[in-house]
Amino acid sequence: MTFDFENWSEKLYQVSDKIDYAQPGYEKYDQELIELWEELLQHEDHYSVQFLTVLKSKLKDLVDGKVAENDYEQFVKDLRTDYLE
């Protein structure tokens, strides 16, 4: 079965929207987020998943102070260009 990233993204958006309106009480959507993440990780060969995996790693570096914000922004622009080609 082919991974439908657009459908997955829409589900993620819907859960995120529910979380925005549930403050406080957003914890009840944790399981949905976990299931979506697990679904995503089952498709590591899909270019969208690879993109998000690389992006997540670099975002962690930004949060940990290993990368400057300007460098991160440029990295994201370059990464988008690479994956769109």
Write the layout of secondary structure elements.
Layout (H helix, E strand, L loop, with lengths): L4 H17 L8 H12 L5 H17 L5 H16 L1
Helix pairs in contact: 1-2, 3-4
Report on the structure:
The protein has 4 helices and no strands. The model has no long low-confidence stretch (mean pLDDT 87). The chain is mainly α and 85 residues long. Helix 1 (5-21) runs antiparallel to helix 2 (30-41) and helix 3 (47-63) packs antiparallel against helix 4 (69-84). Helices cover 73% and strands 0% of the residues. The longest helix is centred in the N-terminal third of the chain and has 17 residues, at 5-21.
Radius of gyration: 15 Å
Proportion of residues in extended strands? under 5%
What is the share of helical residues?
over 70%
Low-pLDDT parts are none
| Structure annotation, total helices | 4
Euclidean distance between termini CA atoms: 24 Å
- Give the overall shape: globular
